[in-house]
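lol ok so funny story. i was supposed to be doing the assay writeup but got distracted and ended up predicting the structure for this chain instead. priorities right. anyway since i did it might as well share w the group, maybe its usefull for someone
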Amino acid sequence: MSARPTRADYVAWRTVTTRWRDDDAYGHLNNATYYELFDTAVNAHLYEATGLDVRRLPQIGVVAETSCRYFREIGFPAPIETGMVVDKVGTSSVIYRIGLFQGDSDEAAAEGRFVHVYVDNTDPARPVTPMPDVIRAAVEPLHRTP
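and the output, tada:
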């Protein structure tokens, strides 16, 4: 996907508060903070949609891939809106896209790609396993074809 995403591209929303420490020495959001926001958007949705502590399920989602496209600077003190959509729901994986918005702009300041692969949380080797039905039920409503 090469076009700059807009608010209309996402289906689930959450607002997060920025913190003084989120900015780097150049006065904009530190790169690592973008990834924290992506992780929080995905896992907060899973917690809320399932009503469960997803870390305690017999199958858990581990991050297999992340990336970020940056379009413009954002940072403290304004809040950030995270928009999320699911591009693919597989047997054992989910591909999310998370857009970050700050201010009134309809265009994303950044967009992340976040891939969860489900593994057996009861086996120390953590082999890949089908995702739990409760997770599938939480992510399928967010699925849109890119």
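Strands lie at 12-16, 59-70, 80-89, 93-101, 110-120. The chain has a mean pLDDT of 95.
back to the writeup now i swear
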